[in-house]
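Moderator note: this is an archived Q&A kept for reference. The question asked for a predicted structure of one protein chain; the sequence and the answer are reproduced below.
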Amino acid sequence: MCGEPRPVHVNWPLGPVCVRCYQRVRADPGPCAQCQAVRPLIGTGHHGTRICGPCSGSGPAYACRDCGAAGQLRDRGRCAACALRRRLDTITGELAPAAAGQARVTFAQLQARTSPTVLLRSLHGGGLALFVRLLDAAQPISHELLDTCPASGSREHLRAMLVDAGVLPARTERLARIECWLDKLLAGQPADRARLLRAFATWHVLRRTRRRARGGDASTSADSGARTRIRVALELACWLAGQRCDLATATQADIDRWITQHPTRAQHARAFLAWARDRRLAGDIQIPTRPGTKPGQALPDRERWQVLDRCLHDHTLPIADRVAGALVLLYGQPLSHVVTLDPDSVQRRNGHTYLTLGSCAVRLPSELATLTGQLRAQATARPAGPASRRWLFPSQRPGEHLRPAVLGARLRRRSPGHRTARNSALLALAAELPAPVLASLLGLHLNTAVRWTQYAQTDWAAYLAARAGMLPSGTNRQRS
């Protein structure tokens, strides 16, 4: 069917078929050219028409044993809808009447938002056991009840499904996870130390995290940074206690000694000491600011254009990976920003496609505009729940976007140089655009845009100096 050299999964009447084509044909049945029945078309009739298995004389019909619907079968010859119905009957038969009624209502809400195939795959193994445990609790399903279950990927996936279906209200999961983690971290600490660290976490770290979440920053790196700042603050407080002092009595010599012993942790404690000093919980102690560093290695332009050409023209790659790679290669976008793009950020005006990356929209080249339009069409075709958003790069969890680390791993498999490509893209743009324009177009902070323009000017000046040094004496350097 696809004509590509792959291992044969099954021999149908039309010929050998790989596993991809086997799954695709069974999941997309069509009307048979002879009997007109809607079935997977696995044979070839007269004049090359596609026919079903029974009409070909040697193929199965792939029909559900319960309802007779043809297509992809799941549970012992049953379609996804019948297999899901049997699973619901099994669950409700083992529950009390009140819990069984709640199970039917919840299942109806989930089925209204999720296809039977996806729902059946989600409620399998650990997800099904967790769902039964919630129903068997004989109380309304809530976030607090779900938090009592052991932390796992199945729990968070089930939570996302329930929120997307409207069974649970939406909440900022990032903050909830950090707060639960904070309770475990401070358990067993002395009361005064726990009170100090909880105040720092609540009024400084979590406050900033909550503000960034409202602004749409849902990156996992922000969560990791918040946890690191709290953990390092606790380590510093414990170290000072071991030196028979505390923040109020610590001197700059004590802090310098801690920096010497923990050089990699020092910068993460700067916010804690500044917060304590501003509230007169500590004396005049501080950690010096780390000097700024220049960007890392940049990908040569020739290699960057080669990778971009593959993103735009290699039809074997997923559209999402092609669009994400092109945004990195052309506009130097960080993956934490790419994954938060939604269909509303793509607009069609006067025959051109525009993408909003910063405060104003960028007009996309024609080939990238076509790919972005296809990605937007896929995003808008997926239904969105009452409390969820559509994303251009959706996650497998309902209502959530793809994690930057997952997208980065996918891009590294396609092209190992995507990290350095962002540096080269930003250097190329900063060499041509003023810092305010660069910031508004790409969504950069003005100070960040200014630094990139300075880096670009430095590199260009170094190139001119090297070029001038290579010229023979007496050459007209202005002309060169």
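Archived answer notes: The longest helix spans residues 446-470.
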